[in-house]
Amino acid sequence: MTDDAALATEIAAGAGELLLTIRATARYEHYGRELGRRGDHAANAYILERIASARPGDLVLSEESADNPARIDAERVWIIDPLDGSNEYGRPGYIDWAVHVALWQAGKGLTAAAVAQPAIGAVYSTNDESAFAHEPLGRYRPSIVISGSRPPAFIGEVARKVGADLVRMGSAGAKAMAVLRGEADAYVHAGGQWEWDSAAPVAVAQAAGMFCARIDGTPLEYNRPHPYLPDLVICRPDWAPTLMAAVSAHADEPTDSARVAMARSYIRALLSHDATHVRLAEDAWRVENGQRTGDSGIEIRDRLENGAEYRSLRRVRELTFHEWHHDVVARFLLDIAAGPDRTTAVSVVEHFHIPAGDIRSIVAIIEPNPPIS
């Protein structure tokens, strides 16, 4: 039987070839979010089929599939991101996107993984024996790769403290592999991530001897009930003490819990009309002021992106969250366009029920602001 790391490599490479084919045959007008979703869905189906065939008893945690709570007690769970960097994939000429395939085992953690970067013809695995050379510290200014869309708020101060340059890049896998190859010296993220964003890159980087941890220095843990890992550092080991000391001194902002992160992604989608990262159960439902406004995750997502009722929304203000047990309540003011040069505001309370890794229900109360007595 093919060992797990070799299987992960085969699957990641195969999904990468599929993604290249889809991208090459897409018409130019189909680039953007639509192409990213086509690639995501096709690669996810391919990976799930390969895992089911080769390891029929294993469970899967995937960005593109509904969460299966049975994975929490499983012995073996594959954690996959079929297309990490779907925005970059949907843009002609961009190469910073990747395929992540990782295996988690009970009592052992991450045991096998592969990261494919199809656009540059590379696949990296926990089985790799090739060593990548890093320039000696002090010979050149070090560099830190960060998210192009959600850089850590503290990263400017950290870069000044350690004398590093900042490089923006898409895809967690692309950033982690840049550190592995010696093209960057560290990857720092604190803008919110999910387990599938980092599982395979972390496993491959650790196998190559890189330092990997949360920004507070604690270990990265996977296959948790809520698969949210908001931050991480992947760094060349000889620079880790210096970098982590600077991060510790400046990274003082609290991070979202898993449930709050899921609720926040929904609220962001109200304005962005992009629900790609909103985790909704297949049987999710939504009620607004006593009226049913969604009977499935697909319907809620479609209305967020295409519903005419959301097109006039302009700004979320004074957003607060309160969390207890399986529930999150978000309270905020919502500015709505009421004419060419006028906006009005409403007071919104959204109650999210999140028993596992997806939003199961949303109950919204919307009132004029200030409320009419």
Which term fits the overall shape?
globular
What summary fits the major beta sheet?
Answer: 6 strands, mixed
Please mark out the parts with pLDDT under 50 across 5 or more consecutive residues, or reply none. none
Quantity of strands, as a count = 16
User: What is the name of the CATH architecture of the largest domain?
Assistant: 2-Layer Sandwich
Structure description:
- With 373 residues, this protein is an alpha+beta fold.
- It has three domains: 4-125, Fructose-1,6-Bisphosphatase, subunit A, domain 1 (Fructose-1,6-Bisphosphatase, Chain A, domain 1, 2-Layer Sandwich), CATH 3.30.540; 143-250, D-Maltodextrin-Binding Protein, domain 2; 258-368, Nuclear Transport Factor 2, Chain: A (Roll), CATH 3.10.450.
- It is 31% helix and 31% strand.
- It has helices at 4-25, 33-54, 86-89, 155-162, 172-181, 195-207, 240-250, 258-272, 297-306, and strands at 59-62, 76-84, 98-105, 109-117, 122-125, 143-147, 165-169, 186-189, 211-213, 232-235, 280-288, 291-294, 313-324, 327-339, 342-353, 359-368.
- The strands form three sheets. The protein has a six-stranded mixed beta sheet. Strands 1-2-3-4-5 form a five-stranded mixed beta sheet. It has a five-stranded mixed beta sheet with strand order 7-6-8-10-9, with helices on both faces.
- The longest helix is centred in the first third of the chain and has 22 residues, at 4-25.
